[in-house]
Amino acid sequence: MDQAQELRILTQKFSVDTSTSNDFNLKITSVTGGKGGVGKSNIALNLSIALSELGERVCLMDADFGLANIDILLGLKPKFNIAHVFSGQKKISEILVKGPGNIQIIPASSGLKHLADLSQEALSMFAIQAKELGRQFDHIIIDTSAGIARNVLTFLLASTHIIVVATPEPTSITDSYALLKTLTLENNDAKTMILMNMCRKEDEGTIVGNRLIQICKHFLNITPELIGIVNYNTEMSNSIRKQKALLEAYPNSIATLQIKTIAQRLKNLAPKTNDLGNFFNSLKAFIS
């Protein structure tokens, strides 16, 4: 059976309309990083909660295949995960798990290495299923894997907004630049932003972040926005040990307030028309 036949069968099975619709108006924000260890998953989790507190219906998708982090950060043990969607066993709506702050979570499949490099068929199945999300949510936050692997770029290039999480460390800045360069070469048209994390001082994040932006402007002819800075803090480490989100465990910490400020800025960004249709079509185009 070829891919086209498989897609037709899947479409009939799940009764999902794959046509472009103007009924959807939502943001799809991928949170990513040039390298691991920059606190990307924690940012995605707490940003999702902050957006929910601002009144948005938020879905957090753990797309860090093979190294699922969101369920570990929260101590969740989901019965089903995104692997069941890729295999055609479950709909996305059937694997959603309620998280803190009234967010809904799409769990990843930890430890299944074959998901770390998804096949075209698997991504096609997800693309069909993704149409369902627009009826339930205002904002989809995607926690991607770090780096520039094909499955990471698939989600980044299909998103409407991209947040690149970096730290002031030289290796993080170098890898973030490489990621931004790759996105530019792939003709990325999403609004791309930089979030400086683990900064010892706020002005450190501002200086390093603006330096990265100037380098991108000079060599790549792009000007990503510095959406915010999150200071290094012991509360984040403590919340991880407690398996609680920072916003829940330490609602009055400086980092919590910084994340809430970033969430407000993200919320204020106007969604593009028919974002979900674009997301679906971009996924199909990239994997075909």
Gross CATH architecture: 3-Layer(aba) Sandwich
Low-pLDDT residue intervals, each spanning 5 or more residues: 6-23
Query: What portion of the residues fall into strands of 2 or more residues?
Result: 15-25%
Q: What would you give as the CATH superfamily?
A: P-loop containing nucleotide triphosphate hydrolases
Q: Work out the helicity level.
A: 40-55%
Biggest sheet, spatial arrangement of strands: 3-4-2-5-1-6-7-8
Molecular shape: globular
Oligomer: single chain
Number of strands: 8
User: For the terminal residues, how far apart are their CA atoms?
Assistant: 16 Å
Based on secondary structure, the structural category is: alpha/beta
H/E element sequence? HEHEHHHEEHEHEHEHEHHHH
CATH class: Alpha Beta
* Structure annotation, total helices: 13
Number of domains: 1
What is the CATH fold-level name? Rossmann fold
Q: Please outline the major beta sheet.
A: 8 strands, mixed
Radius of gyration: 18 Å
If you average the pLDDT, what whole number results?
84
Please describe what this structure looks like:
It is a single chain. The protein has 288 residues and is of the alpha/beta class. The protein has a single domain, classed as P-loop containing nucleotide triphosphate hydrolases (Rossmann fold, 3-Layer(aba) Sandwich). The chain is built from 13 helices and 8 strands. It has helices at 3-14, 40-53, 70-74, 82-86, 92-95, 120-130, 150-158, 170-185, 202-219, 234-242, 246-249, 254-268, 275-287, and strands at 27-32, 58-63, 97-98, 104-106, 139-144, 161-166, 191-199, 225-231. Strands 3-4-2-5-1-6-7-8 form an 8-stranded mixed β-sheet, with helices on both faces. Strand 7 (191-199), helix 9 and strand 8 (225-231) form a beta-alpha-beta unit. The longest helix has 18 residues, at 202-219. The chain starts with a helix and ends with a helix.
